[in-house]
TrEMBL record:
Organism, scientific name: Nitrosomonas oligotropha
CDD domains reported for this sequence: SPFH_like_u2
Protein name: SPFH domain / Band 7 family protein
Gene3D superfamilies xrefs: Band 7 domain
Transmembrane segments: 21-41, 47-67, 74-95
Annotated Gene Ontology cellular component terms: membrane
Topology relative to the membrane: Single-pass membrane protein
InterPro entries for this protein: Band_7, Band_7/SPFH_dom_sf
Length: 297
């Protein structure tokens, strides 16, 4: 075990070991068991009986060291309270029968956090939940450094989700450069993954992916925020309409003057601009009378 610099957390270093070929040991143990049974079962003196019994006991005890591992599975070996190493290869193996084995799955798991109620960067209450894909990378830390890997992940992931949600706004502010929870999904997902990874590093867990699975305003402000979003959408749409109308009026006046179709006085230009803006921006199909008269010389 070694102590990380700058931290009071003591982490256990994973040590990979390889077990003896289980089939080879089986070929040795089976004849030994058969021979021991023969010594016990056949008539003879007490020495023969004791020797057969001892050989049978040892052979059967050695069989305790035989075990199999499936792909993406590991076994942590403990020898009288001391960490002896980890076997992480799949197959049939034999190890010291005094080893106490703890199996650890290295497969990817999914965890859905509960829906959390958090205040975002602007102080608005929101509901947020995330789906996390994770797996055990360091078996020694997962077994010895935390009481329960899954329970540790659940608590720490909720803490990380709250941290990310409270440091970002639900929606992007007008003219803002900061990332928002609703619009910048990929960036928030990467930030969420890194935040959770920092929280669960001590448990030997690696976060493969973390994404927001649920995001909404809290019920008490949902209607008000919906009206605000609708108002913002209307304002943005109006702004685009005004910009487009101004551009069209400018082009129209320029073409009239360049092609010398008509010469307008300032008052006539004002009336023309007013009528064109009314037509372009009206939602009810206004039809003003557009007067274009030649100015007197």
């Amino acid at each position: 075990m070694n102590q990380k610099s700058g931290s009071s957390v003591i982490g256990t270093d994973e040590q990979i070991i390889s077990g003896t070929n289980g089939w080879l040991m089986l070929m040795v143990l089976l004849p030994a068991i058969l021979f021991a049974v023969f010594l016990v079962a056949t008539p003879g003196g007490p020495v023969k009986l004791i020797a057969g019994t001892a050989l049978l006991t040892v052979a059967l005890f050695c069989c305790k060291g035989l075990f199999t591992l499936e792909p993406n599975q590991a076994a942590v070996m403990v020898f009288f309270g001391s960490y002896a190493g980890t076997v992480n290869a799949s197959g049939f193996f034999w190890v010291n029968p005094f080893y106490n084995r703890t199996r650890v799955s290295l497969r990817i798991n999914n965890w859905n956090t509960p829906v959390l109620k958090v205040n975002d960067e602007r102080g608005s209450p929101i509901e947020i939940a995330a789906v996390i894909a994770w797996r055990v990378q360091d078996t020694a830390r997962a077994v010895f450094d935390v009481e329960s890997t899954l329970n540790y992940l659940q608590i720490q992931s909720e803490s990380a989700v709250r941290q990310v949600a409270s440091s970002h706004a639900y929606d992007a502010a007008e003219g803002g450069q900061r990332k928002s929870l609703r619009t910048d999904l990929d960036a928030i997902a990467a930030l969420l993954r890194d935040s959770i990874q920092q929280h669960v590093e001590v448990a030997g867990i690696v976060i493969e992916e973390a994404k927001i699975a649920h995001l909404a305003y809290a019920p008490e402000i949902a209607n008000a925020m919906l009206r605000r979003q609708q108002a913002e959408a209307v304002v943005q749409a109006r702004q685009k309409l005004v910009d487009g109308a101004v551009g069209m009026v400018e082009v129209a006046l320029k073409n009239l003057e360049d092609k010398k179709i008509v010469t307008l006085t300032p008052d006539q230009r004002a009336v023309l601009v007013t009528n064109m803006m009314t037509v372009l921006l009206s939602e009810s199909g206004a039809q003003p009378v557009i007067q274009m008269a030649q100015s007197t010389q």
